[in-house]
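Re: Re: ligand-bound prediction request (bumping)

Still looking for help on this. To restate: I need the protein modeled with inosinic acid bound, output as structure tokens. Inputs repeated here so nobody has to scroll up.
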Amino acid sequence: MDLVVATRNKDKLREIKTLLKGIRVRVFSLDSFKGVPEVIEDGKTLEDNAIKKAVQVSKFLKKFAVADDSGLEAEYLNSDPGVYSARFSGKGATYKTNNEKLLELLKGMPLSKRKACFRCVIAVADKGKIIGVAEGRCCGKIGFESKGDNGFGYDPVFIPNGFKKTFAQISASRKNNISHRSIALKKAKSIISNHLSLFR
Ligand code: IMP
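Reply:
Sorry for the wait, this slipped through. Here it is.
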């Protein structure tokens, strides 16, 4: 069976493809299809956006699809940037400008005020019908400066609990062992497998 990952974000896709290994599906991204309408991510929560993306894409393509919506929630900022993580620093936001804004907002704050969690919600849908939703969290601290070149997004400023290095300073496989996305995908994998078993 084919499974469409409803994203054009190559960084997310790379992680999701690695984490989906072991499931008997052929994985495609939106880049494999022409004319898929852009889904407006105007939900108030990660759940809303993940469900909207999975449902719309699976309906349009008449296929089985998963969508990830994820973000970083900083305790001192009342869980911001959260659902606005991708566009935190406004129009034309980049990973770099988002990290700069976050570090600026936390400037002078001690480590005890720098707690944050990454949260990932994965929605699974088939031909426009939602099959299930899974969530994963990975908590840690926002460092005092950007460090490391691996990963993407807020990885250079996020130090997971139990580590002294940022996500961007550790290998992809170490990140994939503990990340919010891997936790959500482990749960999503059983939703996907159960759904596939209906067709066997
Ligand atoms: P989305 O495309 O609306 O889900 O935006 C997610 C945004 O959250 C990304 O653009 C990144 O800035 C951030 N993000 C999500 N997951 C990660 C991660 O694993 N590492 C670093 N940043 C992430």
